[in-house]
Design goal:
The protein has 6 helices and 10 strands. By secondary structure, the chain is α/β, with parallel strands linked by helices. The strands form 2 sheets. It has a 7-stranded mixed sheet with strand order 3-2-1-4-5-6-7, with helices on both faces. The chain starts with a strand and ends with a strand. Bound molecules: glycinamide ribonucleotide. The site of glycinamide ribonucleotide has 15 residues, from helix 1, strand 5 and helix 6.
């Protein structure tokens, strides 16, 4: 059973799927804490409802990223994290932080990486005329949204879709693939080796290969 810490900034629907996976036994782990950078993040309510301790560390209370990440790191260590799950945590992390937790940091991003790193991914995919969009779970490296991809899911974009319709479709897939990847990690089947992700001794992806 692995100790998991989940970092959020908002709704926490992905957090909910991991709470549920731990509760129903499909994820051999337990969430020791949920940390948010916003006091009004709805995901905090989800954590409280599941009797999970919560911490709010507001980025507004710190002068720079280094200071913020130092406090965040301590909070994560206090929770004894063996896996850190970024679930809609809308903060860029410092290289020092990422290196310290290297191999234990997972993120979900709402695009088919390496396409559409950064923000507004759904609108950008629509504007580009893409017929497909999706989401990616990846290990976090110093490169923003650039770490090795573990698993992706695709959804169609239909003519006339707006960003919220595409986002809803993507969210549904996120809720399937994120708990699955967390399950693999907690089963000791998934590893990051430098810029590669490995599952059951098989190479899943190579950074930069597309
Ligand atoms: C998810 O769509 C996730 O992919 C995205 O934030 C949303 C959080 O939803 N993450 C990013 O954009 C990270 N760059 P949730 O709070 O309902 O889980």
């Amino acid at each position: 059973m692995k100790a998991i810490v989940v970092l959020i900034s908002g709704n926490g629907s992905n957090l909910q799927t991991i709470i549920d996976g731990c509760a129903n036994g499909s994820i051999p782990g337990y969430i020791t804490g949920v940390i948010a950078n916003k006091a009004n993040a709805y995901g905090l309510k989800r954590a409280v409802a599941a009797n999970i301790p919560t911490t709010v560390i507001s980025h507004k209370d710190y002068q720079d990223r280094q200071q913020y990440d130092a406090v965040l790191k301590e909070a994560i260590l206090q929770y004894g994290a063996e896996l850190i799950v970024l679930a809609g945590f809308m903060r860029i992390l410092t290289p020092e932080f990422v290196q310290f937790f290297s191999g234990k940091l997972l993120n979900i991003h709402p695009s088919l990486l390496p396409k559409y790193q950064g923000l507004d991914t759904h609108q950008r995919a629509i504007d580009a005329g893409d017929a497909e969009h999706g989401c990616s779970v990846h290990f976090v490296t110093e490169q923003l949204d650039g770490g090795p991809v573990v698993l992706q899911a695709k959804v169609p974009i239909f003519p006339g879709d707006d960003a919220s319709m595409v986002a809803a479709r993507v969210h549904e897939q996120e809720h399937l693939i994120y708990p699955l990847v967390v399950r693999w990690f907690c089963q000791n089947r998934l590893q990051q080796r430098a810029n590669e992700a490995w599952l059951d001794g098989l190479l899943l992806s190579v950074q930069g290969y597309a």
